[in-house]
Amino acid sequence: MIRLKQVKKRYLNKTALRGIDLELVPGKIYGLIGANGSGKSTTMKLIAGLIQPTSGHVFVNDQPVDRRIAKVVSYLSELDEFYGFYTVEETIDFYASQFSDFNRKKADAIREYMKLDPNSKVKHLSKGNRGRLKIVLTLAREAPVILMDEPLSGLDPMVRDSIVKGLISFIDLEHQVVIITTHEIKEVEAILDEIIVIKNGKILAQENVEDIRVKEKITIVEWMTKLYEKDNNE
Q1: Alpha-carbon distances, residue 154 vs 44, 110, 159 (angstroms)
Q2: What is the spatial distance between Cα 75 and Cα 56, in angstroms, rounded to a whole number?
Q3: What is the sign, positive or negative, of the torsion defined by CA atoms of 47, 53, 57, 63?
Q4: Shortest CA distance to 116 belongs to which of 130, 96, 102?
Q5: Which partner for 9 in 16, 19, 39, 72 could form a disulfide, CB atoms 3.0-4.6 Å apart?
Q6: Per-residue pLDDT at 182
Q7: Domain holding 199: CATH number?
Q8: How far apart, in Å, are the Cα atoms of 125 and each of 63, 72, 85, 93, 188?
Q9: Total domains in the fold of the chain
Q10: Which domain range does residue 160 map to?
Q11: What is the average pLDDT across 37-56?
């Protein structure tokens, strides 16, 4: 489904990715985790076709990725990219007009689950409710690839757990692959199939979450901390 082959990415004098290899398959939810500046968002933008690698190759469904990959990739950005003068309903209408795979009935169901007022102006929404709207728009598409960059950012800690559990019911794991980057690892751990740890533009590990629980008998956060410490000492 998704392949990155020896992908490097430089921004002027900064190296964001240092020759990473990844292969991600349908039917799984992946957590891409790491410290700030580790390369998580850069990896997501490369898969979404928003930027191009300095060297190496990115493929989705065996097709080289460019801006046209948006037809099969639904991308939730860290940034808010809404028209503030639209209502929630009008924003959903707009997205429905832009993507042929947008499922309007599903969008309404997710909006109701997220407790968003369809008549509220986007410019009047709190940061948390804007985050909920981004989730609605991303998951309402029936694209084979779902990318969610910090989907819990700005959400009240009291509601994160219920929202994370709700994500599962709106994802078709028979036909979709989902990649989530987040600092809220504890909140999403229960829904993840595999964890990918990235540091300073390098992949440190890619492991099955259940294997970590059974074999290591530690949490994902503890496992990630051990990996970082080991890398620091090498």
Answers
A1: 20, 18, 11
A2: 22
A3: positive
A4: 130
A5: 16
A6: 87
A7: 3.40.50.300
A8: 38, 29, 11, 17, 24
A9: 1
A10: 2-233
A11: 96
Is the pTM above the cut of 0.85? Answer: yes
Tokens 């036909």 sit at which residue? 175
Grade residue 81 by pLDDT with cuts at 50, 70 and 90: confident
What would the mean pLDDT of 51-58 be, rounded to a whole number? 97
CA distance 223 to 31: 13
Q: What is the pLDDT of residue 22?
A: 96
pLDDT of residue 230: 84
The answer to whether 43 and 73 have CB atoms below 8 angstroms apart is: no
Closest CA relative to residue 29, chosen from 139, 140, 154, 157: 139
CB contact at 8 A, 140 and 8: no
Average confidence score pLDDT of the chain: 92
DSSP alpha helices (H): ranges in 127-175? 127-139, 157-169
Q: State residue 148's pLDDT score.
A: 96
Q: What φ, ψ does residue 97 adopt, rounded to 5°?
A: -80, -20
Are the C-beta atoms of 34 and 42 separated by less than 8 Å? no
Query: DSSP per residue over 67-113, as a string?
Result: GGGGGTEEEE-SS----TTSBHHHHHHHHHHH-TTB-HHHHHHHHHH
* Contact by Cβ (8 Å): 181, 190: no
Question: Which residue matches tokens 């990318």?
Answer: 147
